[in-house]
Amino acid sequence: MTKQSGKDASNTTTRAADTPRAEDRADDGPSNFVREIIADDVARGRQGGRVATRFPPEPNGYLHIGHAKSICLNFGMAEEFGGTCNLRFDDTNPAAEDIEYVESIQADVRWLGFDWDDRLYFASDYYDKLYRYAVYLIEEGKAYVDGLSPDQIREYRGNYYTKGKHSPDRDRPIEENLVMFERMKQGEFADGQYVLRAKIDMASPNLNMRDPPIYRIRKMSHHRTGDTWCIYPMYDFTHGLSDQIEGITHSICTLEFEDHRPLYDWFLDQLEPVLDGDIRPQQIEFARLNLTYTVMSKRKLLQLVRDGHVRGWDDPRMPTLVGMRRRGFTAEALRRFCDRIGVAKRDGVVDVALLEHALREHLNATSPRVMGVLRPLKVVIENFPEGQVEEFDAPYHPEDPGYGSRKVPFTREIYIERDDFREDPPKKWFRLAAGREIRLRYACLITCVDVIKDPSGQVVELRCTWDPQSRGGTSPDGRKVRGTSHWVSADHSVAAEVRLYDRLFTQENPLDLEEGQDFTDLINPDSLEVLTDCRVEPSLAGAAPESRYQFERLGYFCVDADSTDQRLVFNRTISLRDSWAKLEKKLDKQPARKAKNKKPTTASKGASTSKS
Ligand code: ATP
Ligand code: MG
To answer: What is the pTM of this model?
Structure first.
């Protein structure tokens, strides 16, 4: 058995402070103790030098980013050592499992970029074999049918401080056990009336070894085996044996199974004489991924979905792979993130900022730049003729000419971002204000000559003039124009809805609860903001769902599947860097030059929040 020394090279807790360290790592990832164990086994020719791993989800929910870590590790190790990785559904609990999940999980693993070729397996395919193994254990006097109720079993098990007690059925003769187990299988008993238990040691300091149940009665249809079975093998019994059946060499799982490892080995030891081949899988535990500001257990995620706190498993605020994909995450960004956080042996919490960093990095490199206006303010260019269209060339990517360019139409009426105008500009305000001049990105310089308000005092329109000499956006006489705004043509732009997201929970650890609190009490009421009157440049018309863009100055956006021919829907995947929000906050704190009619502005929200 491999001794897992403290070789754990990677970080356990990737808090913000650790982030730069993580960034410094090579992109192929830090070394980790799992890799070291496998490399050592391969070097010593253990298991014939073969490497076979598996990703074993239970189909009782959608995959989340924690699973992505496990997928990257299992498939990654197989790839690195020229081995194989199976996809195996651990489907031993008919109550919670569903074909919907089986399908979504396969789609998610593929989307992440991994392929199990023809090695798709189900633990339920092994039910016959597992049953024979259980019968063998009975024959060897290593298992017995117990009539204690579930409550009694718990009570008899004892706890950390007290030894367990033997069940009166523990010494049931082998012949009788065989008959009883067969009768369990034939459906003669009710759920919970009997269980088959391994006969190990009721005094073991490891509670998992105190005669754990290995088969229980569940009169329920299974998503694959239908009504063939009414007894189902328990996870601990099934898992290691499934590994053995599939010839898995390294069974990588999360830390909570560390105390189950003796049981994993016990089943393999007892059954050794009847197992096929001489494969002896080895369980290796690593720390599960936890992320700040989210929850990761499928049960909790299901609760969020069932109770309507989110719109579904694929709600873009969810840490599920379908949710993140819908939000605009790339598989590449997730893989990079998983590489960078490394593999640890002690539980910790990774700062979500690290994930966001990997995402921004990839989106920055791969997103075409376009213009969209989230909260439009109409601007009329008084000296620009009605009906005329001027087209400006705008490159899609500042660093990569390979992305090409498009023409953006400029017309007499345009929209700019409401936040880009201030009636009472603070000091160092370089964007638009009465009498000020700014640059419209890729287009020209405009000067605000008049501000039109409605009866309530709300600014509804700006009157501006343009400088025809400034076509392309360069100042014709070297005069300084520092501010640049994004914009769209009023007539030519396309209507859009934009969904802005913030963290789903208000607290870094949503499971750190006070008495009487439920984790759903910590849901951020402002985690979704829907803007319905947005306008985007015409080149986006008809963009397909999942297309990703950078809206200049606003962040990265992704077309949502809710889009129709009439109206595009975008999700903001993530804002640009935080620095802009910080700057604006600073500006807001400075006293306005002419402090008249001071109304608190909510304007900064859309363009500058970077919390999401
Ligand atoms: P959950 O706690 O979300 O219900 P689970 O462990 O019950 O997760 P499984 O379907 O059994 O879900 O998980 C499949 C594989 O993914 C297992 O090997 C499990 O250890 C691994 N896994 C699950 N959650 C995480 C996580 N947060 N980080 C790393 N690996 C994980
Ligand atoms: Mg599990």
So the answer is: 0.88
